[in-house]
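sry for the spam today, last one i promise. struct tokens for design, 317 residues
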């Protein structure tokens, strides 16, 4: 069996040496397994590439350098395209997800699992506010989504070769990877673990940064048209409310009662304007996804690939 480990990284010089050593130590002892590490460089500006080139002399590391910064998902897909394993584990390079759990993931795969989700029971080093917002975000996504997205499962999973092939067949320009791993179906298993603190460096996904917000929007619009139906519902409710106001105005006029003040009108206008803006914004999110799809641009461009010597692949006795 060949196991591929895919890492998307940008500026992780403080973590990469320890990551490689811990991954190598984790897979040692899994009988009859060869492995390769596929590192996808998202246009790093530090010494990450230099360190990997040195580590490549001792470990089976393939390096894929992107032509510019594309983001995590395109880099993961590039790694999938060039991974040769019967099973693929993809994870972050910050060592918050312990590589020591990989043998358990492989054991579930050998027992018939096609997807192994790593579910976080605790998240060390993360604030209560972030935990609460993450939980609410998953609730919103699951409310609208056509598939059930498991909570507290991030970018630390094992996928079988056939699952990876199905994902690569899809032509979505901006896929939501966490959802696709569920959408493809097949046998899904879960392992629970405690997520550790980041080993070194600073997070690339601050709470209110572009990354988490984009990931939330991607998940919200990737698997359901529910928000558009909600927009229609808001429009229907406001229309009925406006009709009620018309009847009220006619009744007060016929009864000779004084016309209400301007404040009520301003409140109504502000309310309806807000609902209209929300509805237009939801429609805009879907239009933007359609626009990205119809342009037909590639999801990523690879500058070059630095392979390892086939004889350097490690076989675990």
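last one done:
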């Amino acid at each position: 069996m060949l196991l591929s480990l895919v890492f998307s990284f940008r500026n992780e010089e403080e973590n990469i040496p320890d990551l490689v050593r811990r991954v190598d130590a984790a897979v040692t002892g899994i009988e009859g397994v060869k492995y390769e590490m596929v590192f996808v460089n998202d246009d790093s500006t530090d010494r990450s590439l230099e360190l990997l080139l040195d580590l490549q002399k001792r470990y089976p590391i393939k390096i894929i350098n992107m032509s510019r910064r594309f983001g995590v998902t395109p880099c993961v897909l590039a790694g999938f395209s060039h991974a040769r394993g019967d099973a693929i584990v993809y994870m972050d390079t910050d060592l918050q997800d312990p590589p020591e759990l990989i043998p358990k993931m492989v054991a579930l795969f050998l027992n018939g699992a096609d997807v192994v989700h790593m579910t976080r029971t605790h998240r060390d080093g993360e604030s209560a506010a972030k935990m609460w917002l993450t939980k609410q975000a998953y609730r919103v996504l699951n409310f609208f989504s056509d598939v059930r997205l498991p909570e507290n499962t991030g970018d630390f999973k094992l996928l079988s070769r056939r699952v990876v092939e199905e994902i690569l067949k899809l032509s979505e320009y901006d896929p939501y990877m966490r959802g696709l791993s569920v959408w493809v179906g097949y046998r899904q298993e879960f392992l629970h673990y405690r997520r550790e603190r980041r080993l070194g460096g600073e997070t690339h996904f601050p709470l209110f940064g572009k990354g988490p917000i984009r990931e939330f929007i991607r998940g919200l619009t990737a698997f359901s048209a529910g928000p558009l139906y909600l927009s229609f519902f808001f429009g229907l409710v406001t229309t009925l409310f406006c009709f009620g106001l018309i009847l009220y105005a006619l009744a007060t006029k016929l009864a000779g009662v004084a016309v209400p003040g301007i404040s009520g009108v301003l409140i109504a206008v502000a309310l309806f304007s807000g609902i209209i803006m929300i509805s237009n914004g939801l429609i805009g999110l879907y239009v933007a996804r359609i626009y990205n799809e119809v342009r037909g641009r590639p999801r990523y461009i690879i500058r070059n690939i630095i392979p390892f010597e086939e004889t350097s692949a490690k076989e675990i006795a």
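The longest helix spans residues 262-295. ok im logging off now
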